[in-house]
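Subject: design request, 66 residues
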């Protein structure tokens, strides 16, 4: 599953991942998720821009907070 996070000032400029495995940081920005057991992890980033970030969420994640 890929989710899109919308907001402001999420990244300095638009960038997309150029290779697999996907990076956990692009343009100095990263996304951290907290699952239902309160464990946090930085997730891979496919694309980001100042107003959005697109990230795949691992299948093992059930409930999360971004």
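Subject: RE: design request

Done. Sequence follows.
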């Amino acid at each position: 599953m890929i989710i899109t996070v919308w907001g402001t000032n999420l990244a300095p400029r638009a960038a997309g991942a150029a290779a697999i495995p996907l990076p956990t940081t692009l343009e100095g920005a990263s996304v951290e998720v907290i699952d239902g057991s309160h464990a946090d992890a930085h997730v891979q980033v496919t694309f980001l821009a100042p107003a959005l970030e697109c990230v795949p969420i691992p299948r093992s994640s059930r409930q999360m907070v971004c």
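The chain is about 0% helix and 40% strand.
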